[in-house]
UniProtKB/TrEMBL annotation:
Domain of life of the native organism: Bacteria
Alphabetical UniProt keywords: Signal
Naturally occurring in which organism (per UniProt): Koribacter versatilis (strain Ellin345)
Record-linked Pfam families: LolA_like
UniProt keyword Signal, yes or no: yes
Protein name (record): Uncharacterized protein TP-0789 domain-containing protein
Length: 250
C-alpha cells in the first residue's frame, strides 16, 4: 500500500515538473526569441518570389490580375519587375511594391520591435496545425506599416506565422477602413510571406479587396548578379479611390 502511495506521489511530482517545463514563457521571452529567430532568416541567400496580385471591387466580374517578380539580396536590398498586368490594377500594385522595397531597403523589414509596439501575451492558438503564441500588438506610434492587431508566433521555432490588424495611419484619405492579414511559411528553405489579404472600404466606390500569393520561389546565387533597378513605366492616371485601396505594405 505504501509503495502504491509513493508511486502515486512520484507520478504527480513528475507530472507537475513536466507541466512547469512546458508552460508558456513570459511575453519578454517570446518577443526576444521571435526577434532572434526572424533576424536570423533569409540573410544568407539571394532569392526571387513570383507573386500573383488580384484587385477585386464589389463586382467580382471586374477583378484584375497582376504578376510581379520580387528579388532580394542577402544585403537586404530588394527590387521588383512587373511581368503581367496593365491598367489601374498594375498601377496599384506598383505603388504597393514601391512602398515595400522602400521600407525594406531602409530598415530590412524589421517592424515587430519594442520601438514600435508594446506586446501582450494573449494565449495560444493553432495556425496551419502549428501551436502559436498570440501577441497582442499595441502600437507606440502611428504609421502605414504599424498595425493594431495580433501576431501569431510559432511555439517551436519562434518564427512569425501570421500578422493581422488595422494600420494606425490610413494609406489614403479615400480609405475609411482597412483590414490586413499577412501569412508566412517556409518556402525553399526561406521564411517568406506567402499570402496577403487587404480588405478596404473605399469612399464613393465601396469595398475593394487586394490579395497576393506566392506562385514560385527561386534561390540561386546568380540572382545576385541579375538584381538591378528596373526601368519603370510612367504611371498612368489612376482613380484615387482604387489607388487608396492598394497602398499598403506587402
Amino acid at each position: 500500500m505504501r509503495a502504491m502511495i509513493r508511486a502515486s506521489i512520484l507520478t504527480m511530482l513528475l507530472t507537475a515538473v513536466g507541466m512547469a517545463q512546458t508552460s508558456a514563457p513570459d511575453v519578454n521571452t517570446v518577443v526576444s526569441r521571435m526577434q532572434t529567430a526572424m533576424g536570423g532568416r533569409n540573410h544568407d541567400r539571394a532569392y526571387s518570389v513570383t507573386r500573383e496580385y488580384r484587385l477585386v471591387p464589389e463586382d467580382p466580374n471586374k477583378a484584375s490580375r497582376v504578376v510581379a517578380e520580387v528579388n532580394a539580396l542577402p544585403s537586404g536590398k530588394k527590387d521588383y519587375r512587373i511581368t503581367e498586368g496593365g491598367g489601374q490594377a498594375e498601377n496599384v500594385v506598383r505603388k504597393v511594391l514601391d512602398h515595400e522595397t522602400e521600407v525594406t531597403n531602409q530598415n530590412n523589414g524589421a517592424v515587430l520591435t519594442a520601438d514600435n509596439y508594446d506586446f501582450v501575451l494573449a494565449g495560444t492558438e493553432a495556425i496551419d496545425g502549428h501551436r502559436c503564441y498570440v501577441l497582442q500588438l499595441k502600437p507606440k506610434r502611428d504609421g502605414k506599416d504599424i498595425l493594431r492587431g495580433r501576431a501569431w508566433v510559432d511555439a517551436d521555432s519562434y518564427l512569425v506565422r501570421q500578422i493581422a490588424g488595422t494600420p494606425t495611419k490610413s494609406p489614403s484619405w479615400w480609405i475609411k477602413d482597412l483590414q490586413v492579414t499577412l501569412h508566412y511559411r517556409e518556402m525553399q528553405g526561406l521564411w517568406l510571406q506567402d499570402s496577403t489579404q487587404a480588405v478596404a472600404q473605399v469612399r464613393v466606390v465601396g469595398k475593394h479587396t487586394l490579395t497576393a500569393r506566392a506562385l514560385d520561389v527561386r534561390t540561386d546565387t546568380t540572382l545576385a548578379g541579375n538584381l538591378q533597378t528596373p526601368v519603370r513605366k510612367r504611371s498612368r492616371r489612376v482613380d484615387p479611390a482604387l489607388l487608396g485601396a492598394g497602398v499598403i505594405r506587402h
